[in-house]
Amino acid sequence: MRRLEDKVAIVTGAGRGLGKGIALKLAEEGAKVVVADMASADNVVREIEEAGGTAVAFSVNVAKQHEVQAMVAFAIEKFGTLDIMVNNAGINRDGMLHKMPVENWDTVISVDLTGTFYGTQEAIKYMREKNYGRVINISSGSWLGNIGQANYAAAKAGVVGLTKTAARENARKGITCNVICPGFIETDMTVKLKEIKEGTAWDSMISRVPMGYAGKPADVGNLVAFLASDDASYITSEVINCGGGMIV
Ligand code: NAD
Predict the structure, then answer these.
(1) For a designed S-S bond to 237, which of 6, 29, 108, 167 qualifies (C-beta 3.0 to 4.6 A apart)?
(2) Contacts of 192 (CB under 8 A, 6+ apart)
(3) Residue of 12, 25, 38 to test ligand 1 pocket, by largest number of atoms within 8 Å of CB
(4) CA within 13 Å, CB half, 248
(5) Catalytic positions, please?
């Protein structure tokens, strides 16, 4: 029995990486998925359709409020409702705080934090009307602080505060809001470490993972599918790590 039959989901940043893994998993569980990304997401839609699922691509820059509003309106018009909002789109611009250009601060905050605010707010406005919803926001283990990631850590800590507040404000409206903190997952965002100093940066990250290997997007997808399902209906305001035991 598929857990998300007839549910409608939006996943941002779903053209590749974690978002793609999440979209594939939600579709496998029966959800109709809006695969939203700034870049092309057609390949992900094709993969879902080839596996017998239902999906449609939507082009969005989550840092632009009117585009996020249009995305939510599109999902409701296309599939009749919105049940699951996954704010996954995120970027990093790493560098030591004392050398960080303000542009790198602003860019990361605007996508990772403000983009998540827009997505959470717009989804919740609609979910409150129907007294049902699942908001799942993707933060990072770095939210607790990580060398070279002042902008990213601040944004991802902001996502935790935003989501916990949304959870409390909407707990009596049938809406759950939770945060997932992936550890070290093999995607385009992390695989570039393999090229730094002939792979030593990658090896050093792996050495911090007690399980001894990088996670896969599907590992995060499995957790999202659980939180989106009725199996998780009494779970809200939580911050859940998915990182093979890794502590940043
Ligand atoms: P990725 O770079 O592989 O993919 C990110 C996707 O988001 C891309 O398809 C990109 O086009 C899209 N995107 C970027 N900016 C956007 C914008 N403004 N609007 C819409 N789409 C946009 O990254 P990933 O590793 O898949 O990361 C996904 C999320 O998981 C991010 O929020 C990231 O911070 C978080 N995360 C990743 C890891 C990891 O180990 N990979 C660990 C912790 C947290």
Answers:
(1) 167
(2) none
(3) 38
(4) 18
(5) 152
Q: For 189-216, how does the pLDDT look when each residue is reduced to its tens digit (9 = 90+)?
A: 999 888 887 788 999 999 999 999 999 9
pLDDT for 236 equals: 99
pLDDT of residue 247: 74
Sequence length of the chain is 248
Q: What confidence tens digit (pLDDT) does each residue in 141-165 have?
A: 999 999 999 999 999 999 999 999 9
- B/e letters for 53-84, b = 16+ CB within 10 Å, e = fewer, are bebbbbebbbbeeebbbebbebbeeebeebbb
Q: What SS3 state is found at 100?
A: coil
The predicted structure's pLDDT at residue 1: 82
pTM of the model: 0.98
The DSSP call for residue 177 is: E
Nearest atom of ligand 1 to the alpha carbon of 215: 40
Q: Which atom of ligand 1 is nearest to the CA of 152?
A: 34
Question: Mean of the pLDDT values across residues 50-66?
Answer: 98
29-57: average pLDDT: 98
CATH of domain 8-185+217-242: 3.40.50.720
Select from 11, 16, 18 the residue to mutate for testing ligand 1; criterion: most ligand atoms less than 8 Å from CB: 18
Residues 6 or more apart in contact with residue 167 via CB below 8 angstroms: 175, 176, 177, 178, 236, 237
Paired tokens of 76: 């409701």
